[in-house]
Amino acid sequence: MDEQSDSPAPPQAGTRHYTLLHSNELPHFSEIPFIQSTSSRIDARLAILDKEIARLEQFAAERAVLVSYGSQSKAALSPMRRMPNEILIEIFVLTVPSVESDGSWACTFSLQKSPWVLTHVCSRWRAVAISTSALWSQL
Q1: pLDDT given for residue 4 in this prediction
Q2: Pairwise CA distance, residues 130 & 111, whole Å
Q3: Source organism's superkingdom (predicted)?
Q4: How much is the pLDDT for 1?
Q5: How far is the C-alpha of 60 from the C-alpha of 56, rounded, in Å?
Q6: How far, in Å, CA of 89 to CA of 135, rounded?
Q7: Is the peptide bond before 79 cis (omega within 30 degrees of 0)?
Q8: Helix and strand totals (H; E) in the chain
Q9: Where does 18-139 show beta strands of DSSP type E?
Q10: Which of the 8 DSSP states describes residue 101?
Q11: 105 and 97 in contact (C-beta within 8 Å)?
Q12: DSSP assignment, residue 105?
């Protein structure tokens, strides 16, 4: 007998067992062994299902760890990470607000704009931006 067939089916409407489950009637003395047997079978099946659920939860937890590890591994190979600092500096310099020929700023000063914003992306960008004097010479 497989585990699935050992699951007791809920009683059908109109049966004595259904009536006992959906009312406060007392079972007859002769009905008690059947109800106890059904309860035992339900408990046994629940124990099996609980073990399977715990196993699935372990698989789900392992999967979540592997997804995170895989994402981190792929990120480590990102072309942006391998870009030389010299190229990164050139890109950074292009993001600085320009100064007009009369010495005024083309845009208003803001902490949300370059070069300030470059220092908040990651530790590498912060180190590169802070060490690049061309980014700070116009401030």
Answers
A1: 55
A2: 15
A3: Eukaryota
A4: 43
A5: 6
A6: 9
A7: no
A8: 6, 0
A9: none
A10: T
A11: yes
A12: B
Tokens of 133: 């004097």
User: How many other CB atoms are there within 10 angstroms of residue 97's CB atom?
Assistant: 15
> Could you tell me if 84 and 107 are in contact, meaning their C-beta atoms sit under 8 angstroms apart?
no
**Neighbouring-strand partners of residue 105:** 99
* Residue segments in the chain with a per-residue pLDDT below the cut of 50: 1-2
CB 17 within 8 A of CB 10: no
SS3 per-residue string spanning 47-65? HHHHHHHHHHHHHHHHHHH
Q: Is the dihedral of CA 98, 102, 107, 113 positive or negative?
A: positive
Q: φ, ψ for residue 137 (rounded to 5)?
A: -70, -20
Q: At what angle do helices 123-130 and 85-95 cross, to 10 degrees?
A: 70
Q: What gap in Å lies between CA 15 and CA 33, rounded to an integer?
A: 17
Q: Are 115 and 129 in contact (CB under 8 A)?
A: yes
Maximum distance among all alpha carbons in the chain? Answer: 104
